[in-house]
Amino acid sequence: MCCLLLTATSACATFRGNSAEGESAGGTYMPVTISGLPDNLQRGAESALQIHGNKADSVLEARRRATQAADTLQEYLASEGYFAAAVSPELVESTDTRPRLDVSVGERFRIASIKVSGTDDVTPQAQQRIRSALETLKPGAWARTTEIEALESLLLRQLQNSGYAFAESKGIDALASRADKNVELTYNMKPGELVRLGEMTIPDGLRTKDKAIRVLQNWDEGDLYSPEKMETLRTRVRSTGLFDGIGVEINEQPDADGTNPVDLKLSEGKRRTIGAGLSYSTSDGAGANASWERRNFRGMADTLGVEAQAATLARHLKVTYKRPNIGRYGRTLTAEAGVRDEETDAYDLKGIKVAANLAQPFNKNFTLSAGAAVDATRSTDYELRAQGINSLQDQVTLSFPLGANYDTVRNPLDPQGGNRAYLGVEPGFSFGTGTVASYTRIQSSVSTYKKMTKRLVAALRLEAGSFLGDDSVPVDRKFYSGGGGTVRGYDYQSLSPKDPKGEPIGGDAMLNVSGELRWRKSEHWGYVAFIDAGAADSDLETAASSMRSAFGLGVRYYPGFGPVRLDIATPLNPREGDEPVHLYISIGQAF
User: Fold this and answer.
1) Which stretches of 80-144 are DSSP H helices?
2) What domains are defined for the chain?
């Protein structure tokens, strides 16, 4: 490019930075006074020339800074299309006054023409993408450096997206015309050879078996290279949770078949994780849980986990085995076995359960699953006690749950945006103490999260459930509402049908809705305002008409892995005997 001297304007501006204190305290300040700069360029010039440090200690230092400031301002003006601008620093004689820069901006240049060299032999697809890229910057536009360089980056990406993995830019030739006040641009591209992806090579000495890594490959040998394919591969490898270091490199030398091998660079991480947590609420009681997990249990990226919980209302111990990518990427088998002991107002229950589930994603957001479970329980419930039946009910339930899940939320513990939707249908039958019952249990939920501002997130959740078939099933198959997981501000299970003694007995339908406004005040602290409403009853229409609501406020502490939650809720339409305030402490957002 060439710089041309043109007629200067007469405006004068002095910039003094953030504050006067900045000059003496090592803050941000302007080292010069500028004369001749138009108003529309003053803010950009100020931003470009602000520096961190103290005022110059000597005349020599002041002169050096003035010269550097002149060069910086010249570059800024050129970036805005003023290629003929001239910036002249005043001779500095003393450190008591700021040196002055005299500016002559001249006329702003436009783009006269845009050419791309070196791409005559690329594929038609690549040529079409280059033509599309050129639509983003057309002749006649102001010759702004940021837009000119952005087009260079876009041209390079379009070549890479067309299979030219080693494409390079050899720079931009810009010919400025003094007479026409314009610039002719030529982008010099070096596409290199068209790359077709070949075999994926895996490092030796890994605990993870090659079979468990090869299933992550997302191309057929001979497919054209694309950055998206390589990023998808990185995401798949990262999602296994097995590797601390992940690298993907394309071998520049093709094999005999003309394809370029893809080299994985992997460093395996720790295999074990131990976790623990505490929770407390005035309605649900106190609880503690602990977990142990062993990743890559058999070298197939599989996981063995043990989870234990001891709480006021329930205790359980569960062993889970998860085997991902069975036969194809994403297909996951989950098997579990566990024992549980629950003592609630609605029922007392002891049970042993064995279950297996197979899930298959159809894209990164949508997953279908199917499973089978055997659940042996011994329970008593207050509905039977009201009828004078005090004996324990021994039952075995066979169920075949089906599920559909849609999820675009990135951070499960603290969602900032996205949506979740779940639909579960569980057909089954139960047999035991004098009963044989068949049923279908349907449950659905929808959650949405919207970032209103940089610090404010709105969250909304709707849950609904329905029960079809015989009632003579284990009591935990029925629906209950009230408590920390559904409607904060009410006792656990209290928004459910009751027997003549006022004890909850469970309903055939459930409807809950919750809304929150989450404000992140700082890195470690946030606040929440929320409203919950819900009920369980004989059917959805009755549940909707009998819903009760509560209002609450919460505090969130963010230690780095997810929020620690403290909520206080009060009923908005309390019944006789309802407590005025309930407190909840747990980890993670409420939903």
Assistant:
1) 124-134
2) 33-104 (no CATH), 110-190 (3.10.20.310), 196-268 (3.10.20.310), 324-587 (2.40.160.50)
| Separation of alpha carbons 238 and 242, rounded Å | 7
Contact of 525 with 487, CB cutoff 8 Å = no
The string of DSSP letters for 3-36 reads ---------EEE---S-THHHHTT-EE-S-EEES
Cα(271)–Cα(207) distance, rounded to whole angstroms?
Answer: 10
From the list 186, 201, 133, the residue with the least C-alpha distance to 162 is 133
Q: What angle do CA 164, 169, 171 make, to 5 degrees?
A: 165
Residues paired with residue 110 on neighbouring β-strands, in sequence order: 142, 182
Give the model's pLDDT for residue 4.
31
pLDDT tens sequence across 475-486:
888 899 999 889
| Alpha carbons 259 and 257: distance in angstroms, whole number | 6
**What are the residue ranges of helices labelled H in 135-267?**
145-161, 210-214, 227-239
Beta bridge partners of 349: 342, 379
Per-residue model confidence as pLDDT tens digits over 352-397: 999 999 999 998 899 999 999 999 999 886 656 666 666 788 899 9
Tokens of residue 191, six digits: 């596409």
Name the helix (H) or strand (E) containing 62: helix 59-79
**Sequence-separated (6 or more) residues with CB below 8 Å from residue 44:** 76, 80
Q: Is the pLDDT of residue 135 over 90?
A: yes
- On whether the pTM is more than 0.70, the answer is yes
Mean pLDDT, the chain, integer: 87
Parallel, antiparallel, or unpaired for β 197-201 and 260-268? Answer: parallel
